[in-house]
Amino acid sequence: MNIVSGLDLISTRGHTSGHQSVRVLLPSGTSIIMTGDAGDLLENYEKEILPGESVDDIAALESIRRLNQLASLPNTRLFLCHDPILIQTLKLAPDYYN
């Protein structure tokens, strides 16, 4: 669902029934998808493993697969904020992405 130009909500139910992830299109043309709690760790996406908690396992796995499909698009990157290793590679405030 498009909220405003460059900002979309993506239904990623499973962890909760109304869970959503956010896709931001940056001025550089790169898309960043903030996955929230759809999957906690990079391993959830690489091995299609369910998140630690989910109210609907089938929907949670479908959401991980959909996010993987979106991440395969050119200039698209998933931001997994719960992965302790990956978070160290991200720019955090006050730094930012263009």
CATH class: Alpha Beta
Query: How far apart, in Å, are the first and last alpha carbons?
Result: 23 Å
- What's the architecture in CATH terms? 4-Layer Sandwich
| pLDDT < 50 stretches | none
Quote the average pLDDT: 94
> How does the helix and strand content classify structurally?
alpha+beta
Helicity, in percent? 10-25%
**Widest sheet, order of strands:** 1-2-3-4-5
Tally of alpha and pi helices: 2
Beta-sheet strand percentage? Answer: 15-25%
Radius of gyration: 13 Å
Shape: globular
CATH superfamily placement: Ribonuclease Z/Hydroxyacylglutathione hydrolase-like
Number of domains: 1
CATH topology: Metallo-beta-lactamase, Chain A
How is the main sheet built? 5 strands, mixed
- Please provide the ordered H/E string of secondary-structure elements: EEEEHHE
Tally of strands: 5
